Amino acid sequence: MRTLIIYGSNHGCAKKCAELLEGKLKGEVDIVDIRKDVTLDLNIYDKIIIGGSIYMGKIQKEITEVCENYYGNLKDKKVGLYVCCMNEENIEAQIKDNFPEELLFGAVTQGYFGGAFNFKDMNFIERFIIRKVAKSLSKTNEKFKKIDMKKFVDMIERGNIEKFAKAMNSF
After folding, report:
1. Does some domain include residue 68?
2. Number of domains in the chain
3. Does any domain span residue 128?
4. Which of 54, 101, 118, 139 maximizes the CB count within 10 A of its CB?
5. pLDDT tens-digit series, residues 148-161
6. Which residue range or ranges hold the Flavodoxin domain (predicted)?
7. Using H for helix, E for strand and C for coil, what is the string for the chain?
């Protein structure tokens, strides 16, 4: 079995999750950063995993384009879909709003992999927005009270990656 992981990442979280996932999947696994490699041959793969980070409510446009442009190939594959984001409270809506309905319906699994903040790679506006969002979320979520804006913040849900891999490996 050959598996292809296609990801899009703004600051590296979806990439890190793809790499963690790769180590848990059976068979041969290839990883493609869709923002760098835009040529895809899906015919040689049995399983396709597509994921990206949610940024201001949207997944990367390249991920959306892959889902739309390659749907003909994807509908005949075992497909898994994942998102990376910090706010797990509305994760079902995030997944539903960022992947085409027909692809969601046919997917063998969907996953939420948590998120990460890499403040040194963000511009001033991104850091400002993250501070505001984290402050707002800290009122209802304890983990946001502990965020140090000067450090790399890793809130990747490794257990969710493990469950996702088990689901993909079962096919």
Report:
1. yes
2. 1
3. no
4. 54
5. 656 667 789 999 99
6. 4-140
7. CEEEEEEECCCCHHHHHHHHHHCCCCCEEEEEECCCCCCCCHHHCCEEEEEEECECCECCHHHHHHHHHCHHHHCCCEEEEEEECCCHHHHHHHHHHHCCHHHHHHCCEEEECEEEEEHHHCCHHHHHHHHHHHHHHCCCCHHHHHCCCCCEEEEECHHHHHHHHHHHHCC
Residue 125 pLDDT level (bands cut at 50, 70, 90) = confident
For 74-120, what is each residue's pLDDT tens digit?
Answer: 999 999 999 999 777 788 999 999 999 999 999 999 999 998 877 67
| 94 belongs to a structural domain | yes
Domain assignment of residue 55, given as a range:
2-118+155-169
Residue 50 pairs with which residues in a beta bridge?
6, 81
